[in-house]
Every structure is written in structure tokens, then in C-alpha cells.
């Protein structure tokens, strides 16, 4: 029996399994489930083994309201992006049937918002833990979310938090509506944050990106009667506040395609494609320094005229991407533009010297479900669970 093997040999065998297979194996043995897969030494060994395997370059994608772990291979003449498996929680048998509308990655955890925007769950696909979060009052369609953590001392356990906010214009009330509140997973409490933003707004299609526990967004200047420039804004989960406006390496505005990604969980990457002439040039920069109060940028990482390849601008409310620094390649996830033919989810692989490949991600695309990709690093982070009574306290800052 494999369960009779010495612990170090068990770790050696299990560390070579793909993550979806590892989850199935873990639940066949109570000891593995309770200790081995949640052990920091095993997690480190698993990451090292995964790095050795080309097929273990992994990302998480949301396609057609489902969440997948994808294997990425950009080495072959014909690159491949294939599903390793659909991610679902074995702690909740109904989760596989739940449609997911948005995902947000931080520290190996995924924050998932259901398609109907009525439920919120924090989920660790590596150890199978989930936690469904009850609203302070109610969730509604204008909500935006972010997941981050408080940067504490080296030996302190990270305090993970969820930011929920509304930043929209209510036409019936003829005024802007701004609401900010934070849920602390350690204390199971919501806290209302009184904050008066000095920017115009964070548009609904500007997705946040978590890096080193903080979340970054594009925001717009507050100019009366005008469309203001776009800048970068950081929410600091330690101070529970927004930092100063951070510069971007371009002059962007509403309608441009703007997207954020991370590189090695250490640096920001930003993608920019103009909405007016010349609309087809795609540019990507990687930060040289990044923090809640300061950011600086390297020279442009990649600049490609997309007119010969696609002839269209990537969607400003889709167009998520990831970067392979070594191969100097950018992979943009979007939809095809070929009416009246059915629309499909597609990966566009873009590099230097005319390198361009596409990978069909399968199935016809739902125009209402924008494909989304985010980085993913397996983590043994434990999700604090609610008290036995499920009580969640509410406070006001």
C-alpha cells in the first residue's frame, strides 16, 4: 500500500502528479488530505517538480462560466494551451454546477463571484478548501471585488481580506454612488470604509490585479465634462486605503484597451492598445519597481503592429494576458471577430520579428462571458473558516 510508504517517499511520488490528479489522490487517503498536501515542505517540493516539467507552466482560465487549470506549452512550432482539468471544490459537491462570472487570484487563492452575482467564495484549488462569504447587507450587480492580504511580520500569519466596492453613477438618483467595505477572513467581520475618491471612477471593465498582497487598478481623472487620462491606483490591504496616483508608461484614456498582468508574482505588466488611429499597435511594459506608493517602468517589453495579424482592437473589457519573459512572448486571451461565423474563445500568441500564432480554446464563445486568464501558483495557504454559528460581525471605520 502506498500509504505504508515512508513520508519522504510519499512526497516524492505525489509531487510528480498534475494538480488535478493530486486533488483526487489526496481524497483517497485521510492522512494525505489532513497533513501531506497542506505541508509547507511538500508544497515547496511540488512547485519545484512542476517547474521542471514543461507542461506544468500553468494558468487559470475562466471560459463559458467555468474555471479551468490550463497547461501552456510555447516551445513547440505549434504552441498548445490545453485544459488539465476543470477546477471544482470537493468540499462542496454543488460547486461544479455553479456558474462563475468573475475570478480574482491572490497568493494561491481564487476569489470567485457567481454568474448571478449573488454569492462570493474564496477557494484554494490546491488543498480544496472553500469559504462562502455572506454579505454585510446584500450583493448586487454593480459590485466590484479584490482579494489581498495584510503584510505583517515575517513570522505572522497573513491576514487575507476581501474588498467590495461600488463605484458607479446612479441615473435615477442623478449622482455618483461610492461604497467601500472590507471583509477580514481571520475575524469574519465586515468593515465599512468611509472614503471619498478624488478620481473620476474605476470603470466596471477595469479588472484589478493582486500583487504582493495589494491590488492595482486603472482609474480615470476627475475632469468635469471631459474624458480624463487613465492612471494606476493601488489599494493597500495593510493600511486599508488607496495610495497616490501612480504613473503609466503611456497616455491612455477611456476606450483604449488596457490590461494588467503579473510577472513571476514580483512585477506588474501592462498592455496598451489605442482605441483610435493607429489602433492596431499593441505595447507591453514590465515594471522595474512596484509598490503601493511608487512604480517605475522598464523600456517597452514588446511593441507589435497587429493590423497584419488581426486587424482589430482587443476588447477593452476582455483582452486579459500573460507574459513569457524568456521567450519574449505575450499571450492575449480574447474572442474571434469573424461574423457571421460563430465567435470562439482564442489565445493570440504574439512575439518579435513577426511571430504570431493562435490557439483555439474550444467551444463557441458566449458574448456575455468574456474569457479571462490569470496567473496561478499552487499554495498551501489555509482559509480561515467562519465560526460554528457562521456569525460575521459588522463594523464601521
Automatic annotation (TrEMBL):
Residue ranges constituting the F-box domain according to the UniProt record: 1-45
InterPro entries assigned: F-box-assoc_dom_typ1, F-box-assoc_interact_dom, F-box-like_dom_sf, F-box_dom, Gal_Oxase/kelch_b-propeller, SCF_F-box_component
Domain of life per record: Eukaryota
Protein name, entry field: F-box/kelch-repeat protein At3g16740-like
Species of the source: Raphanus sativus
Gene symbol of the encoding locus: LOC108812596
Amino acid at each position: 500500500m502506498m500509504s505504508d510508504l515512508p513520508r519522504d517517499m510519499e512526497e516524492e511520488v505525489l509531487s510528480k502528479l498534475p494538480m488535478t490528479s493530486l486533488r483526487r489522490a489526496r481524497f483517497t487517503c485521510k492522512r494525505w488530505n489532513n497533513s501531506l498536501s497542506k505541508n509547507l515542505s511538500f508544497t515547496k517540493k511540488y512547485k519545484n517538480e512542476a517547474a521542471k516539467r514543461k507542461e506544468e507552466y500553468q494558468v487559470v482560465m475562466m471560459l463559458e462560466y467555468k474555471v479551468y487549470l490550463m497547461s501552456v506549452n510555447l516551445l513547440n512550432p505549434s504552441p498548445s494551451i490545453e485544459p488539465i482539468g476543470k477546477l471544482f471544490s470537493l468540499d462542496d459537491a454543488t460547486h461544479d454546477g455553479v456558474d462563475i462570472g468573475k475570478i480574482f487570484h491572490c497568493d494561491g487563492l481564487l476569489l470567485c463571484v457567481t454568474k448571478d452575482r449573488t454569492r462570493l467564495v474564496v477557494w484554494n484549488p490546491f488543498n480544496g478548501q472553500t469559504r462562502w462569504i455572506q454579505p454585510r447587507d446584500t450583493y448586487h450587480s454593480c459590485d466590484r471585488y479584490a482579494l489581498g492580504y495584510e503584510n505583517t511580520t515575517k513570522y505572522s500569519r497573513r491576514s487575507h481580506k476581501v474588498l467590495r466596492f461600488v463605484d458607479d453613477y446612479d441615473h435615477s438618483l442623478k449622482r455618483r454612488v461610492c461604497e467601500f467595505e472590507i471583509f477580514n477572513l481571520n475575524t469574519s467581520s465586515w468593515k465599512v470604509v468611509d472614503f471619498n475618491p478624488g478620481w473620476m471612477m474605476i470603470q466596471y471593465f477595469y479588472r484589478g490585479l493582486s500583487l504582493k498582497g495589494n491590488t492595482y487598478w486603472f482609474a480615470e481623472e476627475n475632469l468635469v465634462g471631459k474624458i480624463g487620462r487613465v492612471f494606476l491606483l493601488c489599494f493597500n490591504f495593510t493600511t486599508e486605503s488607496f495610495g497616490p496616483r501612480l504613473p503609466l508608461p503611456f497616455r491612455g484614456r477611456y476606450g483604449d484597451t488596457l490590461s494588467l498582468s503579473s510577472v513571476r508574482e514580483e512585477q506588474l505588466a501592462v498592455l496598451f492598445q489605442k482605441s483610435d488611429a493607429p489602433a492596431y499597435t499593441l505595447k507591453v511594459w514590465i515594471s522595474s519597481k512596484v509598490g503601493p506608493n511608487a512604480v517605475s517602468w522598464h523600456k517597452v517589453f514588446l511593441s507589435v503592429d497587429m493590423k497584419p495579424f488581426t486587424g482589430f482592437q482587443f476588447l477593452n473589457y476582455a483582452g486579459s494576458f500573460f507574459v513569457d519573459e524568456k521567450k519574449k512572448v505575450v499571450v492575449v486571451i480574447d474572442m474571434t471577430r469573424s461574423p457571421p461565423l460563430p465567435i470562439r474563445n482564442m489565445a493570440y500568441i504574439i512575439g518579435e520579428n513577426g511571430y504570431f500564432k493562435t490557439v483555439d480554446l474550444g467551444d463557441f464563445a458566449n458574448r456575455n462571458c468574456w474569457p479571462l486568464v490569470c496567473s496561478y501558483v499552487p499554495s498551501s495557504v489555509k482559509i480561515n473558516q467562519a465560526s460554528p454559528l457562521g456569525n460575521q460581525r459588522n463594523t464601521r471605520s
